[in-house]
Amino acid sequence: MTTFRDLQLSNAILQSLEDLGYTSPTPIQEQAIPHLLEGSDVAGQAETGSGKTAAFGLPLLERVNPELQQIQALVIVPTRELAVQVRQELKQFAKHIPNLKISAFYGGHSYRIEEDSLVHPPQILVGTPGRLTDHLSRRKLDLKHAKQVVLDEADKLLEMGFEEEIDTLMAALPRERQMILFSATMSAGVKELIADSLKAPEFVQATASSV
Ligand code: ADP
Ligand code: MG
Questions:
Q1: How far apart are CA 177 and CA 198, in angstroms?
Q2: How confident is the model at residue 85 (pLDDT cuts 50, 70, 90)?
Q3: pTM higher than 0.90, yes or no?
Q4: What are the contacts of 134-139 at 24+ separation with CB within 8 A?
Q5: What mean pLDDT is reported for the chain?
Q6: What 3-state class would DSSP assign to 70?
Q7: Residue minimizing CA distance to atom 26 of ligand 1
Q8: Where would I find the Helicase ATP-binding domain in this sequence (predicted)?
Q9: pLDDT digits over 170-202, tens only?
Q10: What gap in Å lies between CA 51 and CA 47, rounded to an integer?
Q11: Which atom of ligand 1 is nearest to the CA of 21?
Q12: CB distance 211 to ligand 1 below 6 Å
């Protein structure tokens, strides 16, 4: 059986996983994490509950530099509930990494609080497409250092009609970036999004929702 240690994760991350009682990686984590640590683009399909947040989140945490106060990773999610939840989960994984800041921007949240958080930018920003593009048009958000980008629940992002916002966000990101897309289903739209925004992606898939 593969362990998290076999996946070459740092001691800080291994400690937080132990604190959380995660004993071994789920199939999607086991498949995605090595590719992500190598810097490849990854497209992953796995059903709800299969552990996709850690699959993309652990490599993000390994690859950002806590010494630099720049947004180095952007996680785009379809709903505010998911923004709050993903941020919370990433914070738990980052518990033993000093100086790592993770913020969440989403509709209904205070613009003032969000803009204040950009004075000392987080290394990881989680957000919904509408709110993130609002900050871009207010010229408050600088994404030029966001070299890791996650499209989480890509099927839902498209169902909710966020294509234009996603295009706007992509245009604000650096050209050289690692793209990660996770989805519960591979609709035609999701396949098109993968073809348009990922470079030579590794495909990972897990059908069992065994955690
Ligand atoms: P998905 O995004 O695929 O729907 P989540 O990432 O939200 O799934 O994970 C579902 C649940 O499983 C969460 O409660 C999470 O904390 C838990 N979980 C994820 N990975 C593991 C693991 N390796 N061991 C134990 N529990 C895990
Ligand atoms: Mg998820």
A1: 9
A2: very high
A3: yes
A4: 135/105, 135/111, 136/168, 136/169, 136/172, 138/111
A5: 96
A6: coil
A7: 22
A8: 33-204
A9: 999 999 999 999 999 999 999 999 999 999 999
A10: 9
A11: 25
A12: yes
